[in-house]
Amino acid sequence: MSTGPGPGGQLGTFYEQVGGHETFTKLVAEFYRGVASDPPLRALYPEADLGPAEVRLRQFLEQYWGGPGTYSEQRGHPRLRMRHHPFKVTPAQRDRWLLHMMAAVDTLELPPANDLLLRDYLERAAHSMVNSLDEE
Question: Record-annotated residues binding heme (predicted)?
């Protein structure tokens, strides 16, 4: 997200408006706490340790919202659909992902305009990751 007046006339990037690294670290840590306790969703993550996935998601979100470009520096263009293609992502898994992500957003207690913007993006991104209707 580019610099300029944000929701409510705030200046700076969305990343800066919501508290930067600390906020995104909390968001992603809360999200992965939910993932770790949800066996059907946890099955989407091949690594035994969720730590690397947590770092990647945090770096991606920070970059997307106007923070450091570390994600692209280390991993190249995000290409979200391509990166998720090897995994069967169903509507049910999307819904579980959103359940935990929205619960994590709740913990941030963001100003209403920022909260709405973040939730809207996450909802759209989650829907775009579905690549299978096979619920088996």
Answer: 127
What's the Cα-to-Cα distance from 84 to each of 55, 78, 114, 117, 136, rounded to whole Å? Answer: 16, 10, 27, 23, 18
First-to-last C-alpha distance (Å) of the chain: 38
pLDDT tens sequence across 17-62:
999 999 999 999 999 999 999 998 898 888 888 999 999 999 999 9
Q: Is 127 marked as a binding-site residue? A: yes
CATH of 12-129, one of 3.30.540.10, 1.10.490.10, 1.10.260.40, 3.40.50.300: 1.10.490.10
CA 23 – CA 62 distance, rounded (Å)? 9
Give the span between the Cα atoms of 78 and 17, in whole angstroms.
Answer: 23
Structure tokens at 78: 């995000």
The pTM (predicted TM-score) of the whole model is 0.82
